[in-house]
Amino acid sequence: MSTKLMGEAVQRVEDDRLVRGGGQYVDDIDLGALHLAVVRSPHAHARIRSIDVDAVLDIEGVHAVWTYDDLDGAMAEPLPLLIPHPTLTHGRTQYALARDEVNYVGEAIAIVVADDRYVAEDAVGRVVVDFELLPAVVGVEAARAAENLVHDDVPGNIAARSVQQNGDAEAGIKAAPHSLSLDFDIERSACMPMEGRGVTARWDTANGRLQVWTSTQTSTGVRAAVAAKLGLDLLQVDVITPDVGGGFGVKINHPWPEELLVSLAAQRLGRPVKFTEDRREHFISSAHERAQLHHVDVGFDDEGRLLGLDVRFWHDHGAYTPYGLIVPINASTQLVGPYKTGPYRVTFDSLYTNTVIVTPYRGAGRPQGCFVMERTMDAIAAYLGKDRADVREVNLIQPDEFPYDHGLVFQDGRETIYDSGDFPTMLQKIKTLVSWDDFESYRAEMAAQGRRVGIGLAAYVEGTGAGPYEGAHVNIESSGKVKVATGLTSQGQGHQTAFAQIVADELGVPFEDVEITTGDTRRMAYAVGTFASRAAVMSGSAIHLAAKRAKEKVLRLASDALEADPEDLQIVDGVVSVKGSPGTSISLGTVAVLSNPLRYAFDEASKAATQFSVGDASKPPVAEDDEPGLEGKDFYSPVRSTFASGMHAVIVETDPDTAEITILKYAVVHDCGTVINPMIVEGQIHGGVAQGIGGALYEKMAYDESGQLLNASFMDFLMPYVTEVPDSIDIDHLETPSPLNPLGIKGAGEAGVIPGSAAIAAAIEDAEGLPITAMPISPSELFELRAQHAVATTTPEETR
């Protein structure tokens, strides 16, 4: 029998091509296209009095210059609010080109289409916009104060106020033997994929068809949006997603103004048109995330057991709400982590500010929620004088309590019900990986060398595999090759490898004979997208089901050809044979020919098929309930999300003089259910840990009070390099398969990033002996905290 590939560390098939420069990204697609450049607002909040484009019209090489007044029909309406919500009472979205007012630096005002990017950029510089400046609202505190409004028709800058509760948290806290009130702050950050946004479009005038290549996480979503805005039938639009140089959430938003404007320009001008953003544009006109302020009231007993938890937070969603409330809903429902919180109430306000819009960034609200919960656990332990791991242990949901219902509604509109897990075992594993119980001896050893170290841990649960569905199509060709298509897109996750492992196992074919296509609406017209750690759960399950359908047809046709019962057949290395009689066999390629009775011998497989007689000669070659071809197509739609989980632990060193923070050791225990490919999962975790370190220590969007982003370049915006990420990350897997899908899979894509800030903050606090309540934290900020703490803890006698 063939060796099973599920669970094996199969080398990624994508890497050789990409590492050797064989990738093809949107900007590599050469159609002799015209280039589009964008006039962007230099102000965070202003009315547009007038736009003068006269100086552009006579520039050689310019083909079009458009403002809002050049748009009509659906293109002149606001962009869609993609995910409405009952509590989103004042949702607002921008126009493809600003109408009357701009609300953040970088908002699109006009476009120029020219022969090349150089001419287009020069022309952009000649467009004159007359502004009436308005007061800018920057940051959560300014939005809460509501002295100025981002949108005149949104009272208090509040787009949404949401409350969820399970039990009477206020009464639980009041009756508890102990209680604490805590405040936490996470600042605004953003993902920085190596490839920014880009789109190319071509209009086929003769056939009335639009082809769009875009760097997106949802090709089918872009297709639907472009068709709706341009007044085209869905079947008139093809969207192809080539190689994508990273997404991390920012490319799930759709449609971006540029996707619509490029498509419209291609249609109107009858020429291919392309747009590729530069890095500054990505900083000021794509999307950010993370910024939230939190207040926590918690009650607990002498063991640290939670008796009531009341959380209020304020979320900064920027100038518009195209992606609804996904981020704060995730933060509010995932905050509870692996714990039994007792009565829980969470309230959030989602607020407008004159800053770049917010869409999910890897973790999507969960890092904020995890930070709040884990810092609260550490505060309880400090208050009681108990070990931080022991306080967590008494609150953990137990293995025999699954499925566990938190009584909350998750971002997919379904119940927050944990499907499986083993949190006590996970805690013991993470303690072992970092020698938690022996850390004090290590601390003493380091102190003897004049070095200051601390240890921290953080736990999380992550909703993954959100619906509504994904589909797959499996086609076995006469060559024996298996062509598989699924609609979601790839941004480096290793889909071509992991999905091929699933198919190879189910069909019994060589791994090398499986080819995976993602993100092409010509191959799979209906899909949702790649986000929320859903690819393996959703498309993996759909591919498994589609392969099973194809296999059923293979065995049915082969049983007729071999005159054997289907139950007696096996498929090994692409050959169907009778169990125990390998000489009685037929190749998959030949079965594919039998499934499509053309009567023509055009290759070796079709010649070989002539020796087999299939079916009853008195019946049609293709039965009434069948169709030609050796194919399988299926969709997977879950009843609700599945929940992955994990725990991270970190040891840091803080320099006594410079306050520099160095990570000495990082460890992860992770449960994503059935592991398809451990190497890919570990790669996801490594990348996520790097981003978690970035969010904890470096990445911060620095706005001034007028709404200008002061660090909109890689010279000023800090990210961790290889020198800031540990050489090795200790990883241990725990597999508790999900009962919600046929393979028992849970998602893994965001696992590495979620608890990073919480674990690192805990380690710094442990090293320094002072509270860490805000992230990210820099050496200068730690230095200042030391000074403040020294003043606060100095007695009057010591100051004399």
From TrEMBL:
This protein's record includes keyword Oxidoreductase: yes
Keywords assigned by UniProt, alphabetized: Molybdenum, Oxidoreductase
Start and end residues of each Aldehyde oxidase/xanthine dehydrogenase a/b hammerhead domain: 20-135
Gene3D superfamilies named among the record's database cross-references: Aldehyde oxidase/xanthine dehydrogenase, a/b hammerhead, Aldehyde oxidase/xanthine dehydrogenase, molybdopterin binding domain
Sample GO molecular function, one term: carbon-monoxide oxygenase activity
Signal peptide (UniProt feature, chain positions): none
A Pfam family of this chain: Ald_Xan_dh_C
InterPro entries reported in the protein's UniProt record: Ald_Oxase/Xan_DH_a/b, Ald_Oxase/Xan_DH_a/b_sf, Ald_Oxase/xanthine_DH-like, AldOxase/xan_DH_MoCoBD1, AldOxase/xan_DH_MoCoBD2, AldOxase/xan_DH_Mopterin-bd_sf
EC top class named in words: oxidoreductase
E.C. designation(s): 1.2.5.3
Recorded superkingdom: Bacteria
SMART domains with a match to the protein in the record: Ald_Xan_dh_C
PANTHER family, alphabetized: ALDEHYDE OXIDASE 1-RELATED, XANTHINE DEHYDROGENASE
Listed NCBIfam families: CODH_aero_grp5
Protein name (Swiss-Prot/TrEMBL): Aerobic carbon-monoxide dehydrogenase large subunit
Originating organism: Nocardioides abyssi
